[in-house]
Amino acid sequence: MIAPQEIIERITAAADYDDCFVIVAHNSQANLRWASSTLTTNGVITEQSVTVIAFVAIDGGMATGSITRTDVKADEYEEIARAAGVAARAAGKAEDAAELLTDSHMGDWGAAHAPTGPDVFSKFAPDLGEMFRRSQEDSIELFGYAEHTHSTVWIGSKGGVRLRHDQPAGRVEMTGKSHNRTRSTWEGRATRDFSDISIGDIDAGIRQRLQWQERTSQIVPGHYQTVAPSGAVADLMAYILYASPGRDAHEGRSVFAKKGEPGKTRVGETLAKLPINLFSDCNFPGLEAAPFNVATSSSSYGSVFDNGIALKNFDFMLGGKLENLITTRASSVTTGLPFAPFGDNMIMELPGASGDLDSIIAKVTSGLLLTTLWYVRIVDPVSYLLTGLTRDGVYEIKDGEVVGAVNNFRWNESPVDLLSRISAVGATEITATRELEGFGRTATPPVIFEDFNMSTVSQAN
Amino acid sequence: MTHTVDPDFLALPLDSVSDAAIQAGLSLGASHVDIRIERVRTGVLELRDTNPETQTDDSVAGIGVRVIVNGAWGFASSPEISPSAAKRLAGVAVAMAKTSAPLTTEEIALAPEPVYANRTWVSDYEIDPFDVPGEEKIARLAGLNASLLKTKTVNYASAFTMFVKEQKHYADSYGTSTTQQRVRMQTAIDAVHVGDSGFESMRTLAYPAGHGWEWMGNSIWDWDSEISELPELLAEKVAAPSVEPGKYDLLIHPSNLWLTIHESIGHATELDRALGYEANYAGTSFATIDNLNTLQYGSELMNITGDRTTPHGLSTIGYDDEGVQAQEWDIIKDGLLVGYQLDRRIAARAGRERSNGCAFADSPAHVPIQRMPNVSLKANPVGPDLEGLIAGVEDGIMIKGDNSWSIDMQRYNFQFTGQQFHRIKNGQLVGQVKDVAYQATTTDFWRSMKAVGGPSTYVLGGAFNCGKAQPGQIAAVSHGCPAAVFDKVNVLNTVAEAGK
Fold first, then answer.
1. Which of A26, A44, A306 to probe the B interface (max B CBs under 10 A)?
2. Which chain B positions have a beta carbon within 8 Å of A458's beta carbon?
């Protein structure tokens, strides 16, 4: 295959229009999947995509169009550049037009992609095999998935942009079931290189939770004081950010629109009673992410015209107050909001907060502890009501201690409204989402939600 | 119109690449080798009002090689399509299988299937959407949006269309070799009204289907008529009263019922799920194999089939991704669970003589797994039309169009919303209500089905984006169904659920 840098140079040279950005993404991945304590699938995957974005001046503005291909041969440079130009002219004037970045350099442009592979599991796989053996002895079934990916992205343009970013990412998920699958629990970890993954810790967590399920009781639907671990909090906060394009709010069609006041948003409004921050920061330790904007297509969340622009912190909420909504440079003009592109990680914190999940549980006199949230969907975009299920363990808390397991629930809640019902927050920790597994870089704390709406009982376990 | 596989796909070195992978895998000790050479081209066009915002043309091509060595799987993929890459990948896959062997306690076996040599299959479509100029596509969608925007009710309109052409060459060490091509289209248009109390939207009821660009004319789906009716329906919804929560008879239109079938029957009868293979991710199923031929899933009016043969079905194919010929079979008969969805590995594990052809991988980079066929509810051959069904409802709601959906990890508890909720009193439609969600347990719901519409109410609905497996895969699938009536289903008010 032809080197990404060569592909970019040749296509930008072949593009006979005003500007051309070429984004080459190269991904390598190794994965293992298991069920009932035996490996079920595995893979070593290599993927490449070449996206050519044409920018063509037309009467009254700038048009843009894009083409993406897996692989580009040497005799295809002119054709793919031409096809992107044709797509741009067909599209007509772009609403999100803005001045394109030029002459910008970042990263080790000339280096080849360093692929990951099965070697990343050299310690993890034997440890996993040992956990399989121990679990079989104790009639525990294990189900799970481990994945390590290394992604490299290069962005080049006719105007002299040459940017590169390397992104390692990994995750481990483990579901443990026992007693003829009537007990079930889950552990998740996010990692960059698997060096920090301890199978022993995962095993201990699985066994503790299965032990907690020795005593079970049925609880009726209702509103409960509910402890959410950091992963479940990350899932809910990520859903909030999905609802955060400033343009939609400005147009009145978002939970962040000011009702009855066209063109106004809720920026500046206090959402959380506690002075919580929710933001992205590409330099956050352990969650380092692309320091520049990457967009292969335009939407409410990003614009191809903003490709390559350096990212600053995106502060969605500071001190509990809605600070910013996601904008492109073009939508920042139409909405009057600051230009605020969203980064590739998410952090939630209460400055000064401390304590782990156990210390949050200890604050509860009578309530519930979740494990994970599942099948989350938007029910009502006006209030941003979500529905979903609790999964792999809900526990009853009495006087600061877990006293046993209860049934699962279908819940109906707005995470925006829930911000005002957070009554306690622990220390922020790097965590793994479950529902939104693609939302790979998150750090959130465990929290207590007041009056969490458990709508009906789910028989699932 | 009968198409053939595109010449530029056939011009790839399909046979030499396949032979290289198979020979290399066998020589390295594999007992089974299969290879897929794929090219999946996906176009997306999105308009905000009459302006194109997103226009992409994405082609993913490559090789996926899968082997069994000493009873363990190995898989490797690459975007490079060449004999040398295929040979190298076979080596990587064999090495991966050997590395995995210590973690594998279940010896992989595959149910047998006849050999099909040099078979070709192409789906039934007229116009390749990739042959249609971008200007023409934009003009069609912009015209539909413009019609909406002429009205007082619609403040914003958005259009989305996705079109896919999937080309696959499959070969295995038994001697099967298939080359296939299929095309599918999905289009949806949303109308939005913004008022003092918030906003309300309504989306078209058109379904995704195995058609080409001819889908966007008016001969198969009458887009112009639907768009002309949408503003008035939206205005009625904006002014509609909020539903009173409680138990209602629900007349569920096929534009909504397809999704309930997908979630509560389609996924629940995947045998890999029922056995636990998806326990960490997509979930399991209450319909475990000990329930086969004993579980009364629904009322006696309920007859569900699985197939990969329905014309224009999104899961329709000639041969699956393990070389199994497409079939049709019963899943639920007279309300009784009688069948599952299988791939070759799951069929062998369950002691079946043959897979029913449900293996699919969504890209060359992913391993084939058991995916959903077209799962459909049969119409009552002598059942009533829609007006007849409405006439039979004393106190209920007719639900049209899909929207929010959610179901638990064993497929018991579900909650769905919709696009339109038409109140029925004494057999008459009396206007819309809004803020409706219905919630039920799967077997309670299907056992409450008390009337099934006739063939005139039958529609082949479906989705492009069914998710399963890790790494995540998506699949397109159709669900045909008539309108049907369900007795006293729990209806929630979504505003009240939000505590407002």
1. A44
2. 408, 412-413
Give contacts of A388 with chain B, Cβ < 8 Å.
Answer: 406
pLDDT value of position B2: 80
Q: Which residues make beta-bridge pairs with B486?
A: B250, B449
Q: What Cα–Cα distance (Å) separates residue A454 from each residue in A381, A388, A389, A450?
A: 19, 10, 9, 12
Q: Is B135 helix (H, G, I), strand (E, B) or coil?
A: helix
Residues of A in contact with B278 (CB under 8 A): 35
Closest partner residue to A48 (CB to CB) among B51, B79, B92 is B79
Residue A380 to residue B494: CA distance in whole angstroms: 7
* Res B84: pLDDT: 97
For B108, which residue in chain A has the nearest alpha carbon? A40
Residue pointed to by tokens 């008390």: B450
- Decide if A412 and B60 are in contact by the 8 Å CB cutoff: no
Q: What pLDDT score was predicted for residue B456?
A: 98
Would the CB atoms of A43 and B197 count as touching at under 8 Å?
Answer: no
The answer to whether A260 and A266 have CB atoms below 8 angstroms apart is no
Q: For residues A416 and A386, state if they share a domain.
A: yes
Residue B444 confidence (pLDDT):
98
**Chain A: closest CA distance from residue B231 (Å):** 17
Minimum Cα–Cα distance from A174: chain B residue: B280
The residue from A178, A211, A244 where one domain ends is: A211
**Pair (A351, A229) in one structural domain:** yes
State the pLDDT at residue A133: 95
Q: Is B365 within 8 Å of A48 when comparing Cβ atoms?
A: no
- Which are the contacts of B150, defined by CB distance < 8 A and separation ≥ 6? none
pTM of the complete model: 0.97
Q: Please check whether residue A306 lies inside any domain of the structure.
A: no
Instruction: Nearest chain B residue to A119 by CA: give it.
Output: B99
Q: Considering only the beta carbons, identify the residue of B76, B286, B404 that sits closest to A387.
A: B404
Are A288 and A368 part of one and the same domain? yes
Q: How far apart are CA B334 and CA B485, in angstroms?
A: 16
Q: Are residues A242 and A173 in the same domain?
A: no
Closest approach of A8 to chain B, Cα-based (Å): 17
> Contact B412/A459, CB-based, under 8 Å?
yes
Tokens of B25: 């895998």
CB distance A95–B59 less than 8 Å? no
| Domain shared by A220 and A206, yes or no | no
In this structure, the answer to whether residues A206 and A319 fall within a common structural domain is no
What is the ipTM, given to two decimal places?
Answer: 0.95
Locate B303 and state its tokens. Answer: 């007859």
* Closest CA relative to residue A98, chosen from A278, A310, A261, A332: A332
Q: B409 and A39: CB-CB below 8 Å?
A: no
Which segments of chain B have a pLDDT < 70? 1, 500
Round to whole Å and give the CA distance between A24 and A3: 10
pLDDT for A439 equals: 81
**How close does chain A come to B100, measured CA to CA in Å?**
7
- Same domain? For A206 and A166 the reply is yes
Q: What's residue B500's pLDDT?
A: 67
pLDDT tens, residue by residue, B244-262: 999 999 999 999 999 999 9
User: Is residue A305 situated within a structural domain?
Assistant: no
Structural domain that includes position A399? 216-297+311-461
Domain count, chain A: 2
Between A and B, how many residue pairs show a Cβ–Cβ distance under 8 A? 273
Do A268 and A206 lie in one domain? The reply is no
Q: Which residues of chain A have pLDDT under 50?
A: none
Identify whether the C-beta of residue A357 lies closer than 8 Å to the C-beta of residue A347.
no
